[in-house]
Amino acid sequence: MKKLLLGSVIALSSVFTVTACTSVNANTDTTPSTTKMQKQHKAGMKKGGMKKGEMRGPLSKLDLTAAQKSQIKAIMEAKHGDNKADRTENKAERAQMHQQIQALTNARTLNSAAVNRLADNQAAKTKQRFIERVQTQHAIAQVLTAEQRAELAQMKEDRKGDNNGRRGPDHREQRGERAQ
């Protein structure tokens, strides 16, 4: 009789547990949190966040004239061009690169020549992005006055020293992971 009573109690408690878990899952929000965050971000942008063409970063803190702002805006627009077309092109290139890497990874033997070609291609793209970034920085610096360039350089130095929470070459040292 004890075994029957004990078995019934365990069975009932299992049923109640399953029922409670099911009702909790039915009441919870199943919308991914990233979607909510994206909606909140877009809503914040509409309320008074950054406006199109507005200066960002350290340049926004400089006392720029209207002429300087328009020149810098023109430089940035020339640099970025048609972002949507570039994004779709880059996405297609990344997908193709991924397929090539997968093919090399799944092959029985590694084709070193193909790996070297992919690495050279990637290095060339990285080099081109670096050159374009330096050219853009130079063009913007030519628009600024000597005082503004000095102030911008000081802001960059201050930012280098202020690495709170940012990843950088020494982020592991801050957490105590690299003890040499």
Helical segment tally? 7
Number of strands: 0
Q: What is the helix content?
A: over 70%
Order of helices and strands: HHHHHHH
Describe the oligomeric state of these chains in a short phrase.
single chain
Distance from N terminus to C terminus (CA atoms, Å) equals 69 Å
Report low-confidence residues grouped into runs of 5 or more: none
Give the overall average pLDDT: 75
Strand content: under 5%
Structural class: mainly alpha
- What integer value in Å does the Rg equal? 28 Å
- What characterizes the major β-sheet? none
Principal-axes geometry comes out as: flat
Question: What tags apply to this protein structure?
Answer:
single chain, 180 residues, mainly alpha, 7 helices, flat
Structure, explained:
The protein is mostly helical and 180 residues long. 74% of the residues lie in helices and 0% in strands. The chain is built from 7 helices and no strands. It has helices at 2-27, 33-48, 66-80, 83-106, 112-143, 146-161, 171-175. The radius of gyration is 28 Å and the shape is flat.
